[in-house]
Design goal:
The chain is of the alpha+beta class. It has two helices and 23 strands. The strands form five sheets. Strands 12, 14, 15, 18, 21 and 23 form a six-stranded antiparallel beta sheet that branches. Strands 13, 16, 17, 19, 20 and 22 form a six-stranded antiparallel beta sheet that branches. Strands 3, 4, 6, 7 and 9 form a five-stranded antiparallel beta sheet that branches. The N and C termini lie far apart (about 105 Å).
């Protein structure tokens, strides 16, 4: 009888240990499944925004509508989404209705590594209703901010605000349709060994509020480099001629945005003139510089 009791106890321990091991394995499996869900949560499925190009229009008395907007800076629902070089298609994890604020980006001073929001263009604001996996083509449109001031606009249609101050060449107006950027006239500088230097400066002095952003917008093409500069006169110091911006060769018409505000702040100047200098490249037989749509913009 005692032996039978021991056998029954042993059978009980075998059965209970078997069930315990089964429950242990089931628990481990369930824990693993749960932990996998934590480590690899379900991925959100994005919608996509597609921007192949943008548009810009200037109002009357704001000069040309030509632009070189290279990037878009995007905020969604008040948060920064990113900066994208156009054309671009990019994912957005927000779904449902969103508010997108798109700002126009440029290459500051024409330098690809220096990209900024252009401060004078008003952002485009869109309300979109996004579905997962869908692609939404957008065509952002920009205009100048209403507070933008144009210290000068020179399109060479009626004259030329740049007066020659040195050199034996000059900046003249041409109306050759094959060389004019838009309208009827553009500015033109011709250089060779006999006419190897042109330097011109705006006839007027322009007052700029201290701390205001200041840019010179310009369309140009050239087969040799030329320079853009500032000329300021400071009380107790005198005149300062500063050539900071070297404009490199471009076979076709190009647009550039030259940031001048930081130089005015450094000089502590609130008045300025813009100047242009082209010195003949003696490795050539002759050189040509074409200008159009110079705009000095500020607040």
């Amino acid at each position: 009888m005692k032996r039978l009791r021991l056998q029954l106890i042993n059978v009980y321990h075998v059965i209970t240990s078997t069930f315990s091991n089964q429950y242990l394995w089931i628990g481990l499996i369930l824990t693993s499944i749960a932990s996998c869900g934590i480590i690899n949560p379900a991925e959100e499925i994005p919608a996509y925004l597609k921007v192949d190009s943008v548009t810009f229009s200037a109002l009357e008395f704001q000069g040309t509508s030509s632009q070189k907007i290279t990037d878009i800076w995007l905020d969604i629902n008040g948060g920064i989404q990113g900066v994208y070089e156009i054309p671009v298609t990019f994912p957005v994890l927000d779904s449902g209705q969103i508010k997108a604020v798109i700002s126009a980006g440029i290459m500051n001073n024409g330098i690809a590594a220096t990209r900024v929001i252009y401060p004078f263009f008003f952002p485009d604001t869109l309300t979109l209703d996004l579905d997962e996996k869908e692609i939404y083509p957008l065509l952002p449109h920009f205009t100048y901010r209403p507070v933008t001031k144009f210290s000068f606009i020179e399109d060479f249609e009626a004259g030329n605000i740049l007066s020659q101050i040195s050199g034996d060449s000059n900046l003249v107006r041409i109306n050759d349709p094959s060389q004019v950027f838009e309208g009827s006239y553009s500015g033109y500088i011709y250089l060779n060994k006999e006419h190897n230097l042109y330097e011109g400066r705006t006839s007027n002095i322009y007052t700029i509020p201290k701390g205001s952003p200041v840019y010179l917008e310009m369309n140009y093409k050239c087969d040799q480099p030329f320079e853009i500069g500032l000329f300021v006169t400071l009380p107790g110091i005198g005149s300062i001629s500063l050539y900071k911006w070297v404009i490199n060769t471009k076979e076709n018409w190009n647009k550039i945005y030259l940031e001048m505000g930081s130089e005015l702040i450094a000089l502590q100047a609130d008045q300025m003139q813009v100047q242009v200098r082209a010195e003949f490249d003696t490795t050539r037989l002759e050189s040509h510089v074409y200008l159009d749509n110079l705009k000095l913009v500020n607040y």
